[in-house]
């Protein structure tokens, strides 16, 4: 049963792009990018028990560093990618020191405040960031000399990175450290009494989540060839959080499903409905009421019940 | 390991703690020898669990000192105390309800090992750790339930998992906070013989209300009331003491 699911998933990721039009291939690339971003946020929210409203900081900062380095300072794509990921991870290490002084609601507010500072900077430091105009005219890298300018080639690139990200994050949460992390999420006091250092475990999780947030930011700026302060906004953080919770926080695949849902609603429905946010809100409300743990856990318990009932 | 200079396993010296105006620990001093079985008794609100929370590091005392085998641990965070050989159980059962018994006990082992930082190998990779967890579960009579989640098992069995998590760590000093609370008579005698079988390398300090069972396990008794030590000494002497009668038996 599990293998059929994996085969179906692999098939739907590998085959349709060969036939679909550019619009759909591009949409699929965006879903992959949003999925990496949501998965990285899920490390914090679902596995670390740290609900953040500032995760767009990592996507946005990695995107901005890469954009500035390649367009303004003449760096090559390879160096720019390494520097932007390193810079974003270092920022996560520093932000973690500040945000982890609190937990729960306090943590949420600090992450929100920090991301608002960055958003404000991106708007106001217009001599560096170009402010509200954003940075346009960017290029995509050409790894091993392969151009990523066509929608389909970029899709394959995004698929490889997303698969790698998914595998790496899955290994991380399934590891012995992952057990420490989930233990600290559930019973921090007991874990401390058993010899685990809850603060350090949370901090490492925070930094790792920031790292993958940065990776999604790189893909984001490659895809759009443009970056604007809204990428750093609370709306951007909140949409990802919505995706994580809707898809199923603390599950491996849930956040990817949730991110896809948010993106599809945004792209499809906004063509017909001006107030697409309202529909997103209603869908979210429906999910929370019907499947409080999210789509993926909800659907799997539903199928389990159906199979049990048919016997 | 640090060599004991005082000869005591655990020393609490002039410990004071107040929540606002409410003094919950007032100048408490205890000296417990290695291998000793100490029972701490006292009416509700006497400050027994608060004292435990200060020894384990969950609460910071306002003043005073706590020494474990001669080294000062007063200002160490809880996780470092665990690495010094201090373990505890909780009055309110604190387990990982969605995980298996095996996983719960393995976490107890993982906490003291460098593998807790291992980021690419799963816990199941550490076969000897899992085997050790199974031995501990066997010792508390729960091996047949090893792969069941905690949410599947009965309250009395959870009490024993609580104990197994601490025992797996082979602590030098073990704090038991009401290990018999809420158990039936049969379960009481099971847990009692379990505690009696803990080797002498482990010093035990126990809070318990069930005097009939607990007194059999204890060698020395400390009576607390309103955050003070009222009587402290050999079991029979404390029981016979006039003040014990006054405080505890309410006559």
Detailed description of the structure:
The complex is a heterodimer of chains A (311) and B (251). In chain A, 75% of the residues lie in helices and 0% in strands. With 311 residues, chain A is mostly helical. In chain A, helix 2 crosses helix 12, helix 8 packs across helix 10 and helix 12 runs antiparallel to helix 13. The longest helix of chain A is centred in the last third of the chain and has 27 residues, at 198-224. The two termini of chain A are 16 Å apart. The relative contact order of chain A is 0.16. The model of chain A has no long low-confidence stretch (mean pLDDT 92). Chain B has a domain at 1-79 and 207-251: Rossmann fold, CATH 3.40.50.300. Chain B is built from nine helices and ten strands. In chain B, the strands form two sheets. A six-stranded mixed β-sheet of chain B has the order 6-7-8-3-9-10, sandwiched between helices. The longest helix of chain B is centred in the middle third of the chain and has 13 residues, at 127-139. Chain B starts with 9 loop residues before the first strand and ends with a helix. The model of chain B has no long low-confidence stretch (mean pLDDT 91). The A-B interface holds A 171-172, 174-180, 183, 186-187, 189-198 and B 56-58, 77-79, 82-83, 87-88, 90, 94-96, 98, 103, 106-108, 110-112, 115-123, 125-126, 165, 169.
């Amino acid at each position: 049963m599990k293998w059929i699911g994996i085969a179906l998933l692999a098939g739907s990721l590998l085959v349709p792009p060969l036939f679909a039009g550019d619009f759909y291939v591009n949409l699929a690339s965006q879903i992959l990018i949003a999925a990496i971003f949501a998965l990285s946020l899920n490390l914090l929210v679902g596995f670390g028990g740290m609900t953040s409203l500032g995760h767009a900081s990592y996507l946005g900062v990695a995107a901005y560093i890469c954009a500035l380095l390649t367009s303004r300072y003449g760096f090559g794509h390879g160096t720019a990618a390494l520097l932007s990921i390193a810079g974003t991870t270092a920022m996560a290490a520093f932000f973690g020191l500040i945000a982890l002084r609190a937990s729960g609601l306090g943590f949420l507010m600090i992450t929100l405040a920090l991301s608002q500072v960055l958003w404000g900077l991106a708007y106001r430091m217009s001599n560096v960031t170009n402010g509200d105009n954003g940075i346009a005219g960017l290029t995509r890298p050409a790894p091993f000399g392969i151009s990523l300018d066509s929608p389909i080639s970029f899709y394959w690139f995004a698929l490889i990175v997303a698969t790698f990200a998914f595998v790496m994050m899955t290994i991380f949460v399934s590891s012995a450290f992952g057990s420490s992390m989930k233990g600290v999420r559930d019973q921090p006091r007991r874990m401390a009494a058993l010899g685990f250092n809850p603060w350090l475990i949370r901090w490492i999780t925070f930094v790792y989540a920031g790292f993958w947030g940065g990776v999604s930011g790189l893909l984001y700026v490659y895809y759009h060839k443009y970056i604007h302060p809204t990428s750093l906004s609370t709306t951007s953080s909140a949409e990802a959080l919505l995706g994580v919770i809707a898809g199923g926080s603390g599950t491996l695949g849930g956040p990817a499903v949730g991110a896809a849902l948010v993106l599809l609603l945004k792209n499809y429905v906004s063509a017909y409905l001006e107030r697409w946010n309202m529909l997103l809100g209603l869908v979210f409300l429906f999910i929370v009421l019907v499947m409080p743990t999210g789509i993926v856990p909800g659907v799997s318990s539903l199928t389990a019940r159906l199979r049990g009932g048919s016997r | 390991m640090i060599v004991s200079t005082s000869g005591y396993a655990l020393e609490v010296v002039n410990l004071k703690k107040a929540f606002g105006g409410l003094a919950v620990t007032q100048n408490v001093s205890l000296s417990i020898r290695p291998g000793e079985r100490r029972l701490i008794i006292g009416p509700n609100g006497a400050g027994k669990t608060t004292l435990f929370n200060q020894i384990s590091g969950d609460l910071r005392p306002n003043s005073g000192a706590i020494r474990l085998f001669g080294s000062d641990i007063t200002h160490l965070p809880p996780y470092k105390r665990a690495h010094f050989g201090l373990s505890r159980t909780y009055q309110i059962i604190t387990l990982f309800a969605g995980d298996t018994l095996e996983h719960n006990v393995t976490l107890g082992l993982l906490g003291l090992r460098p593998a807790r930082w291992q980021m690419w190998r799963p816990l199941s990779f550490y076969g000897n750790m899992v085997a050790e967890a199974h031995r501990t579960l066997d010792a508390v009579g729960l091996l047949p339930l090893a792969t069941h989640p905690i949410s599947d098992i009965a309250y009395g069995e959870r009490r024993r998992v609580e104990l197994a998590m601490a025992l797996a760590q082979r602590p030098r000093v073990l704090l038991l906070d009401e290990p018999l609370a809420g158990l039936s008579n049969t379960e009481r005698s099971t847990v009692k013989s379990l505690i009696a079988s803990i080797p002498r390398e482990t010093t035990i300090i126990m809070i318990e209300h069930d005097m009939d069972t607990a007194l059999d396990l204890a060698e020395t008794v400390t009576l607390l009331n309103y955050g003070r030590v009222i009587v402290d000494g050999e079991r029979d002497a404390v029981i016979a003491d006039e003040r014990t009668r006054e405080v505890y038996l309410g006559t």
